[in-house]
Design goal:
The chain is of the alpha/beta class. The protein is built from 6 helices and 6 strands, in the order αβαβαββαβαβα.
């Protein structure tokens, strides 16, 4: 098991994170700490935000196995092994998840086809909400096979659930084995 995890880490040489808001920047930090890619590329519609996150994350590099951290425009992102997409609008108060789909589908349409063309062998991990529908939108816009475009699904919900159980039972979260299944939204179980 440890061997296969190490092999997967070695196969991910170049990763791009599209959208470096709270989720994207936290993902970048976690990946730097874990040594999950040799090169990490940051991208955001607001280039100044990406550059600010880049400056903060630069200070992590002396303590990591990464050799490169860069900020690039969408058209400069190519030949990645993994592309993590967190870009999208946040849900407004009173806005339904389906209304959010319309706004985020428009955002995806602006960059996804080019990103997929420039990274034809990459795995695309979609985290943008509503994640299940946005994964389908990304799949359609990309023209890539389904095994290359995946969503984070209920991973976050599962983590929250395990944490709540651990707090209630006063045990460590890693000792709680429970899953949330279904779509990431109101019908999950």
């Amino acid at each position: 098991m440890k061997e296969s995890v190490e092999r997967s880490r070695q196969s991910i040489k170049r990763t791009a994170i599209i959208g470096v808001g709270a989720v994207g920047s936290t993902t970048a930090y976690a990946m730097l700490q874990a040594g999950s890619a040799r090169e990490l590329i940051l991208n955001d519609y607001d280039r100044r935000r990406a550059e600010g996150e880049y400056m903060d994350l630069q200070h992590c590099l002396p303590f990591t196995q990464h050799s490169a951290l860069t900020v690039r425009d969408t058209d400069e992102i190519e030949n990645c092994d993994l592309v993590i997409v967190t870009a999208g609008a946040g849900q407004k108060p009173g806005e339904s998840r389906l209304e959010l789909v319309k706004r985020n589908a428009g955002i995806f349409a602006a960059f996804f086809p080019l990103l997929a063309r420039n990274n034809p062998n990459a795995i695309f991990l979609i985290i943008t909400n509503p994640v299940d529908i946005m994964t389908r939108v990304a799949l359609k816009l990309s023209g890539l096979p389904a095994q290359q475009v995946i969503g984070s699904g209920t991973v976050l919900d599962t983590a929250r659930f395990r944490t709540l159980i651990s707090l209630h039972c006063r045990i460590l979260p890693r000792h709680v084995h429970a899953l949330v299944i279904g779509e990431h939204g109101d019908s999950e179980v």
